[in-house]
Amino acid sequence: MQFQLNTDSTIQGDERLAEVAQTIVTGALGHLTGRLTRVEVHIVDVNAAKGGSDDIRCTIEGRPEGMQPQTVTHSDANVEAALRGGAKKLRALLDSAFGKLGQR
Questions:
Q1: Beta-strand relationship, 36-45 and 2-7
Q2: Which pLDDT tens digit goes with each residue over 61-78?
Q3: In 3D, which of 43, 94, 92 has the Cα closest to residue 69?
Q4: Out of 34, 35, 85, 103, which residue is the most buried by the measure of CB atoms under 10 Å away?
Q5: Which residue(s) pair with 57 in the sheet?
Q6: 97-102: long-range contacts at Cβ-Cβ below 8 A with a sequence spacing of 24 or more?
Q7: Are 24 and 41 in contact (CB under 8 A)?
Q8: In the prediction, which pLDDT does 51 show?
């Protein structure tokens, strides 16, 4: 599975953040990572320098083999919380999508 992290100009997308993001997302997805070809994470500070609550938006796109990409978005107060929330939502979405395939 390939992992790609994208950030806007207000969030420093260095190697440390990429490692943290990959650890959080792959940890939350667990056994589902084997069924994905790629995961793309986009982190954006919606209000930039203005600050505010829940101004970090994390969009995660998971690309399951043989299926359309699945995308979720989660906003939170900081990057790690946004990553955790987005990863949790993606796991729930993929569990549902894979569960529907298994019922056929």
A1: parallel
A2: 999 998 999 999 999 999
A3: 94
A4: 85
A5: 44, 75
A6: 97/64, 97/67, 97/70, 98/32, 98/35, 98/64, 101/67
A7: no
A8: 67
- What tens digit of pLDDT does each residue of 16-39 get? 999 999 999 999 999 999 999 999
CA distance 75 to 36: 24
The pLDDT value given to residue 104: 42
The three-class DSSP label of residue 29 is helix
Task: Classify the C-alpha dihedral 34-95-57-27 as positive or negative.
Answer: negative
Distances (CA, A) of 20 to 9, 34, 68, 104: 19, 19, 26, 37
User: Rounded CA gap, 18 and 7, in Å?
Assistant: 10
Q: Count CB neighbours of 71 within 10 A.
A: 16
- Kindly report the pTM of this predicted structure: 0.91
